[in-house]
Amino acid sequence: MQQELINQALIDEARRNRHPDHEIDQIFINRWSPRAFSSEEIEEETLWRVFEAARWAPSSYNEQPWRFIIARAPDDRQRFVDFLMPANQAWAHRAPVLALVLARRAFSHNGQPNLVSQFDAGCAWGYLALSAWQNGLITHGMGGFDRDKARLALGVPEDYDLMAVIAIGKHGNQADLPEDARKREFPSGRRPLPESIMEGKFQAK
After folding, report:
1. Domains of the chain by residue range
2. Which end of the chain is more exposed for a tag (fewer CB within 10 A), N or C?
3. Closest CA to 77 of 165, 171, 175, 181
4. Whole-number Cα distances in Å, 71 to 14, 77, 90, 137, 159
5. Nearest-5° angle of CA 22, CA 137, CA 100?
6. What is the mean pLDDT of residues 105-121?
7. DSSP E strands: which ranges in 17-127?
């Protein structure tokens, strides 16, 4: 209990240090990517609300190139965990839902390469992450997984890129995390906005 109070104090302090340069809705500030998941199942309607938000993300030609393979049954989740990198396996196995984000490489209307499919799929993931937070859930996106192993294990066709694995669930006990993950279990800051913006042409910053 004492450790939980200490961990919560660290989170609260980190959140107080997340100050936007300009006024924005608090959901953008409060959302973060914890690793401490509860194994408690997600209510069906709540889960579908999260994916419904992703459905309405913008995309080129309204192509909606994203696809999500989700794992909720124990055997399915273990199949996902098996292709995660060890550092992610150590905590992601507790999440009640794991999802693989795919991006279709070609446009369906003409078969030409869709050069912004990954861009659009990333936008859908962003909508999903914000909707999850709005519905009392947490998410954590992972690029650390074996894509060849995942493609084989899940039967993903070659015309889809495997983008990321997302853990979805309720916030759990930080004490369950490995020590190295526990040390990083707090909201991170962001670099100042001017460091990300270049006007007129590229400027090294």
Report:
1. 33-172
2. N
3. 165
4. 32, 5, 17, 16, 21
5. 100
6. 97
7. 66-71, 97-104
Question: For residue 73, how far is the Cα from the chain centroid?
Answer: 20
Rounded CA gap, 146 and 113, in Å? Answer: 24
Indicate the residue type of 52. Answer: E
Q: To which residue do tokens 């070609």 refer? A: 106
Mean pLDDT (whole number) for 91-115: 97
Q: Report the b/e string of 129-157 with b at 16+ CB within 10 A.
A: bbbbbeeebbbbbbeebeeeebbeebebe
**Which helix (H) or strand (E) covers residue 100, if one does?**
strand 97-104
What span, in angstroms and rounded, lies between the C-alpha atoms of 98 and 89? 12
pTM assigned to the model: 0.92
CATH topology of domain 33-172: NADH Oxidase (3.40.109)
Mean predicted confidence (pLDDT) in 105-133: 97
Mean pLDDT over each residue of the chain, to the nearest integer: 93
Residue type for position 160: Y
Written as one letter, the residue type at 189 is G
- Read off the pLDDT band of 94 (50, 70, 90): very high
17 — pLDDT class (breaks 50, 70, 90): confident
- Of 10, 72, 19, the C-alpha closest to 41 is 72
